[in-house]
Amino acid sequence: MAWLRYLDSKEYENTKVEGFQVRKSFTAGLLLLFMMSFLVACNQKEASHQQNPYQNLNLHISRLEGQSYTVYKKIVDNETVKTVMSVLLDVPWENAKVSMSRQPDYKIHTINTDPAISYEPVTYAVWLTPKKDRLEVIIEGKSKYGKMTKKDSEKLFSILETP
To answer: Residue 45's pLDDT is what?
Structure first.
């Protein structure tokens, strides 16, 4: 309100040429304040995304039924998505084209829920080893193969098997 009183004062009337400069500075100040607010808001959104980069990701888990794969579970819980993706990222990936003797036991499809974010969907094909103590994974469409640790296999398998 003080700036409104200044604009009505005699001091302002006596400096009409300088008044143009005052209005210009005031406008520039408002513009600067708006830009700073916008940048802070953008940084907060990005910081939120960095804390959980999987917050806009859902997982569809499917298994072989007959001749095709059927989605039997959709994971939308952020914590479970984060756990599954962390386990998959910890796989010691090798660049290799492999041919397995049978179809995958499971497929994990990543689904982006935010159209404003560019994300290439990924499908992980998962096999249970013959001893049933570890999981082997291939990233479909890429030459990536990996065998999970027993601990990570147990963690992922428990998520895959719970309804």
So the answer is: 47
Cα–Cα distance, 54 to 56 (Å, whole number): 5
What residues form DSSP beta bridges with 127? 136
β-strand partners of 139: 124, 144
Q: Which residues have CB under 8 Å from 104's CB, separation 6+?
A: 64, 125, 126, 127, 138
Helix (H) or strand (E) run with residue 42 in it:
helix 16-51
Question: What are the distances in angstroms from CA 69 to CA 4, 121, 157?
Answer: 70, 17, 18
- Contact yes or no for 53/86 (Cβ under 8 A): no
Name the token pair of 65.
Answer: 């039924």
Q: What is the pTM of this model?
A: 0.67
Three-state DSSP class for residue 125: strand
Give me the amino acid identity at 148.
Answer: M
Side chain identity, residue 125: A
pLDDT tens digits, one per residue of 133-155: 999 999 999 989 999 999 999 99
What SS3 class is residue 104?
A: coil
User: Given phi > 0 = left and psi -120 to 50 = alpha, else beta, which region is 141?
Assistant: left
Instruction: Using the Cα atoms of residue 139, residue 144, residue 150 and residue 152 in order, give the sign of their dihedral.
Output: negative
Structure tokens at 161: 């098997």
